[in-house]
């Protein structure tokens, strides 16, 4: 059993509960998945450390539900209104603990940081996306909102980034910035016969550009495609999701699913030859890590975190060129030796750099230095 001076960690992540409970069909993303993976691994490696999540109301039977030894406490409603805000603030005051963790900027991020300071607790912020660090995030476009969010960065006891791009852009706001890569559980590697040539996993948010994948599938009718597209969180995501579903339904070579429980997605990755990413940008996509864990190379339109693709040959980076995306897909699916080489590279890369046990130890060691 490993030892640490960190006795109590509170993770504020409203949309994390569907990751814990597969019967709940709620929208979640890589930020939620990473926090749950990190928390469950910490609980296994450091069993004396108490870990709790502050989550949203998904109709849980009780205010506090325990999952995998981790308390999930309902402190906020998904319908964000005045009543919900007060419920959230009172929940923070009551349940935050020795170390409080939040990921992905939100107007509430600064409230969490300030309440932590008022309670003489440590606040750790984890960057979720590149846009949080280069001022292209919607919350950083107005002067007032930017000041409010930057306050959270400045008063954080530790800021954790996912890649070098983020790290280099935050050191001017806080000298306690470090890089800890995202982690993935390597125990889930599966062996299945390949069913899908191309796989896309994401949400119906416009910046993920899901229609580009469907255009790609349409241009390659000889390839079998799979799209897992949950409804996004943008204002128009519901109508956009319906549009995507209709488009996918018009293609004979594309299977579509609006929701797959997180733990079941590994088998779909394992049945796929290539993962396609069409996002305008990413932080360090959890889908990249899941795919690589199953030995699935990635072909990415815009994202190449820490040069995972271009430097380590785990896939192909297309420099924002849709034509290059088409060419790289065709190359890899018609050159089986190259596909196998990239498959091996992908698994070896995550094994070396992203093992969740190694990442959890790095995280705790950094927190130790904060609370000491």
Layout of strands and helices, then pairs:
Layout: E1 8-12, H1 17-20, H2 30-45, E2 50-56, E3 64-67, E4 70-76, H3 82-95, E5 99-103, H4 107-118, E6 122-126, H5 143-155, E7 158-161, H6 164-170, E8 177-179, E9 196-203, H7 210-219, E10 225-230, H8 237-249, E11 254-257, H9 262-270, E12 272-277, H10 286-293, E13 298-300, E14 315-317, H11 322-334, H12 336-353, H13 356-371
Parallel strand pairs: 1-2, 1-5, 2-4, 5-6, 6-7, 7-8, 9-10, 9-12, 10-11, 12-13, 13-14
Antiparallel strand pairs: 3-4
Helix pairs in contact: 2-13, 4-5, 10-12
Count of discrete alpha- or pi-helical segments spanning 4 or more residues: 13
Count of DSSP E strands?
A: 14
Derived structural class: alpha/beta
Mean pLDDT: 93
- Distance between the first and last residues' Cα: 20 Å
Poorly predicted runs of 5 or more residues: none
Radius of gyration: 20 Å
Globally, the shape reads globular
Strand content: 15-25%
Helix content: 40-55%
Essential attributes:
single chain, eight-stranded mixed beta sheet, 13 helices, 372 residues, alpha/beta, six-stranded parallel beta sheet
Walk me through what this model shows.
The protein has 372 residues and is of the alpha/beta class. The protein has helices at 17-20, 30-45, 82-95, 107-118, 143-155, 164-170, 210-219, 237-249, 262-270, 286-293, 322-334, 336-353, 356-371, and strands spanning 8-12, 50-56, 64-67, 70-76, 99-103, 122-126, 158-161, 177-179, 196-203, 225-230, 254-257, 272-277, 298-300, 315-317. Helix 4 runs parallel beside helix 5 (143-155) and helix 10 packs across helix 12. The mean pLDDT is 93. Helix content is 41%, strand content 19%.
């Amino acid at each position: 059993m490993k030892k640490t001076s960190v006795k109590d960690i509170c993770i504020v992540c409203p949309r994390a509960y569907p990751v814990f409970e597969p019967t709940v069909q709620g929208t979640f993303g890589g930020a939620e998945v990473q926090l749950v993976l990190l928390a469950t691994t910490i609980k296994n490696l450091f069993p004396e450390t108490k870990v709790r999540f502050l989550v949203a109301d998904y109709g849980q039977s009780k205010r506090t539900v325990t999952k995998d030894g981790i308390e999930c406490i309902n402190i906020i409603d998904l319908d964000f209104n005045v009543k919900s805000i007060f419920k959230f603030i009172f929940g923070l005051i009551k349940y935050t603990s020795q170390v409080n963790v939040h990921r992905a900027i939100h107007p509430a991020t600064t409230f969490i940081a300030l309440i932590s300071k008022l309670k003489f607790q440590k606040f750790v912020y984890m960057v979720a996306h590149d846009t949080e660090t280069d001022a292209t995030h919607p919350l950083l476009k107005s002067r007032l909102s930017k000041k409010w969010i930057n306050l959270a960065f400045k008063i954080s006891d530790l800021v954790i980034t996912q890649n070098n791009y983020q790290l280099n852009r935050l050191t001017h706001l806080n000298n306690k910035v470090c890089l800890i890569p995202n982690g993935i559980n390597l125990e889930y590697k599966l062996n299945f016969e390949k069913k899908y040539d191309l796989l896309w996993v994401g949400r119906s948010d416009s910046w993920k550009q899901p229609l580009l994948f469907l255009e790609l599938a349409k241009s390659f009718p000889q390839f079998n495609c799979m799209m897992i597209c949950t409804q996004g969180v943008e204002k128009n995501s519901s109508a956009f999701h319906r549009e995507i579903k209709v488009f996918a339904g018009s293609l004979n070579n594309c299977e579509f699913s609006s929701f797959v429980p997180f733990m079941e997605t590994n088998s779909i990755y394992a049945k796929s030859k290539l993962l396609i990413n069409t996002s305008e940008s990413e932080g360090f996509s959890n889908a990249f890590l899941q795919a690589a864990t199953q030995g699935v190379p990635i072909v990415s339109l815009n994202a190449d975190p820490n040069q995972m693709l271009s430097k380590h040959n785990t896939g192909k980076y297309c420099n924002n060129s849709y034509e290059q995306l088409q060419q790289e897909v065709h190359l890899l699916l018609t050159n089986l030796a190259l596909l196998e080489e990239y498959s091996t590279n992908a698994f070896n890369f995550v094994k070396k750099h992203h093992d969740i046990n190694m990442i959890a130890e790095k995280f705790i060691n950094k927190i130790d230095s904060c609370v000491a």
